[in-house]
Amino acid sequence: MRMLEPDEIEPLATGAWILGAGGGGSPYDGFLNLRRLCRDGVGIPLMDPGELDDDDLVVAVATMGAPLVGRERLADPELSVKPVRALEDYLGRRFQAVMPVEIGGGNGLEPFLVAAVTGLPVVDADAMGRAFPEAQMTSFSIHGLPMFPMALGDVRDNAVIVTRAASWTWMERLSRAVCTALGSTAPTAKAPRTGREVKDCAILGSVTRALRIGRTVRDARARHDDPVAAVLEAEGGRLLFSGKVVDVDRRATAGFLRGGAALDGVEGDAGSRFEVDFQNEYLIGRRDGDAAVMTPDIICLMDAESGEAVGTETLRYGQRIGVAALPAPPILSTPEGLEVVGPRAFGYDIDYRSAFAEG
């Protein structure tokens, strides 16, 4: 176990935003909170999953809802802790560690906010290796682990615990309905996990990957190199398109941010058009009408100059964008994984084809 260093907060936020595939919420608010807490002398332990005892109880946290709403209703560390305490009260047990449900976006930083308030260590793991929009889209679901109980809270004096659900899909429906009633954004504490379950079923090393990506961007900027190219080289990614945003269709509905965007090509991609669909996260990208990348590959829209991720809620006309793909954790592209996070899970009647496939 080691302490998160103050100079790691910015790389963590940068890397988590890129791994968010457009979703997970902007990490900027969490970055500011963490920086303030570290300046105030608050230490945040980071724990290797192997350090967990098998019977340790771990809480996975995330903010649920539409990213656009999250930008309007900023949270604080105490709010993120509310569903954790509610779940502890329900279970009659205290947690020994906290982890992100998804390393992507602001949700990658949320466990660090919980840790700063509670003193719990953050486990270097998550359940997505990126961000996904729905509660069942996790490695825990793919492994068939139970999905309840789960707690949600809000800025008022509301806390809701879903004690049972018939399936992961039903847990998504029930918790989404509660989230919508709470204003389409709510901090959550997911079903508790044992240390053994985390070691066997989580995606390990995801915090380390976010830190590595963030450092790659930072170092490329310092060298005045292309940060997008640096990330793709370091992470085995692919640049799919370079373009300018010419159209954005975006709407918040039923607790999600849905829509799409179109980019016209520049430089070597001039004369072509690239279109992306999203449901909180980027789901599929088409070049001149043909699918070029799709979930679960991590579809990243990155600012061509800074290398910063561009989220689905921050897309705007005129942005110069590099559309990139990063490899997803292998479990997501297994037959069991594709049932949960592949194109058909989002209503696309196409078979998954990796952007990294030959031919």
Concise synopsis of the structure shown:
The protein is an alpha+beta fold.
Give an overview in words.
The protein is of the alpha+beta class and 359 residues long. The protein folds into 2 domains: 2-206, 3-Layer(aba) Sandwich (CV3147-like fold); 226-346, CV3147-like (Beta Barrel). The chain has 11 helices and 18 strands. The protein has helices spanning 9-19, 28-39, 67-72, 77-91, 110-118, 139-142, 168-181, 195-201, 206-222, 227-235, 335-341; strands spanning 2-3, 45-47, 57-65, 97-100, 122-123, 125-126, 150-153, 159-162, 185-189, 193-194, 203-204, 238-253, 256-265, 273-279, 281-287, 290-294, 298-303, 320-326. The strands form 4 sheets. Strands 16-15-14-13-12-18-17 form a 7-stranded antiparallel beta sheet. Strands 3, 4, 7, 8, 9 and 10 form a 6-stranded mixed beta sheet that branches. Helix 9 (206-222) runs antiparallel to helix 10. The longest helix is centred in the middle third of the chain and has 17 residues, at 206-222. The protein is globular and about 60 Å long. The model has no long low-confidence stretch (mean pLDDT 94).
